[in-house]
Write a structure and sequence with these properties.
alpha/beta; Rossmann fold; 15 strands; 15 helices
């Protein structure tokens, strides 16, 4: 098939993980024998406001409109040299005018839009999901949200590329590690390990010196396409948060939520100071980092609305496939969904409470023979069932079997 692809949120890799999804998707699609036609339209101008779900400023709508027209012009040009069998995108509402999918249907091209934040940020893709022919969601329990807006959901989990995430030979450090940015309640889990006398090696953004923002930076703000952009941590940012809480949750509910957020941030500062000595900066290679440590940790929670003070919701993450693919002794937060992909206790291990996290981390560190069995079983399962190639085989089979599939869609 010839597949037109628009999944890079920036042509510059350092912005908005500009090369992440192309690096995940393209090798698998090519291995399956498909031709990729990559959009050259830079989504960066629209990615800068992709956290906005609706109520766009006139300037934002204009930029989105121009972006949409450029992408559609690329599709029409691609059709001049042969049939385009599928349009694959990773769009938020901000990236692409949902009406653009009507034009794709007029051109006879079925569309599928990928999204992996449906549990806690569904609003940011709801309008796109309602118009695309297929909405590919990674989280099992997001289906109801898609059906609620009239979308056609297809549940296919994420995966890992064994050419990128692989075992690396060498000796192991006698400890646990975590690779990931400072987010949600991760500080709480890691702090529980430190309090128990364990010293995790922490890699990623926000754990060390890079988390300290100067007073000048914190107080400055900018305006982009008619919308104020206060910097995180600034007074303007806090004022906007307070205003939103009062508007959406009322006076009493809003004040209670603000109090919870304030208390949470105070505790986070204390946990951050506790964890800073264990920060090792960014991991140069996830494969090498995972292969270098006896136990590899992951944390599964997200905030229900993306902000502290809301409910914590665990869900399967991309790392749940990358870690075992690196042949890691992998310990992650428990979800019902993860049991559909691994034999928990034999291929990977999970935890539900801080005490369980501490106990299981300590157990696997003290029993390297048991850790090795878990490591090998998880690796074999990931290689067999959890590659991106297997995911695309399932996705394309689901589309092909659907009544919405266009005559232009060829296996």
């Amino acid at each position: 098939m010839r597949i037109f692809v628009a999944v890079r949120h920036s042509n510059e890799p350092k912005f908005f993980y500009g090369g992440l999804w192309s690096a995940n998707f393209y090798p698998a699609l090519r291995e399956l024998g498909h031709e990729i036609i990559e959009s050259q339209t830079d989504l960066l101008p629209t990615s800068r406001f992709m956290s906005v779900a609706d109520s766009f400023t006139p300037e934002e709508r204009e930029v989105r409109s121009r972006t949409t027209e450029r992408i559609l012009a690329e599709v029409r040009k691609a059709q001049q040299t042969g049939a385009v069998n599928l349009f694959l995108s990773y769009f938020y509402n901000a990236h692409f005018d949902p009406a653009g999918f009507d034009e794709l249907r007029r051109l006879g091209i079925p569309s599928v839009n990928f999204y992996c934040n449906s549990i806690y940020q569904f609003g940011q893709v709801a309008a796109i999901a309602a118009k695309a022919d297929y909405s590919w969601h990674a989280e099992r329990d997001a289906r109801a949200s898609y059906l609620g807006v009239g979308a056609n959901p297809v549940w296919v989990q994420m995966g890992a590329d064994p050419a990128v995430y692989r075992p690396v030979a060498g000796s192991r450090e006698p400890g646990a590690c975590f690779v990931g940015q400072r987010y949600c309640d991760r500080e709480r889990w890691l702090a529980s390990l430190v309090h128990a006398g364990l010293e995790p090696a922490i890699y990623g953004a926000g754990w060390g010196k890079d988390a300290v923002t100067s007073a000048a930076q914190a107080e400055s703000s900018a305006k982009y396409l008619g919308r104020a952009q206060p910097r995180p941590g600034s007074l303007a940012s806090y004022a906007r948060t307070v205003s939103r809480r009062l508007q959406t949750e009322g006076l009493i509910g809003g004040l209670r939520r603000i109090a919870r957020q304030t208390a949470y941030r105070k505790k986070s500062r204390a946990d951050f100071n506790l964890l800073r000595p264990f920060a090792r900066g960014r991991a140069e290679s996830i494969s090498e980092t995972f292969s270098r440590h006896e136990v590899c940790l992951n944390f599964s929670n997200v905030w229900a609305d993306g902000q502290p003070g809301s409910a914590l919701i665990p869900h399967v993450r991309l790392r749940d496939f990358e870690g075992p693919m690196c042949r890691a002794c992998y310990l992650t937060g428990h979800t019902d969904e993860i049991t559909e992909f691994y034999d928990v206790g034999r291929e990977i291990e999970t935890y539900r409470t801080p005490d369980e996290l501490v106990d299981k981390t300590r157990f696997y560190l003290a029993h390297p023979d048991v850790a090795e069995k878990l490591r090998e079983a998880g690796y074999r399962r990931a290689l067999r069932d959890h590659t991106w190639k297997r995911r695309f085989e399932k996705l394309l089979a689901c589309i092909l079997s659907s009544s919405r599939a266009s005559d232009n869609f060829l296996p």
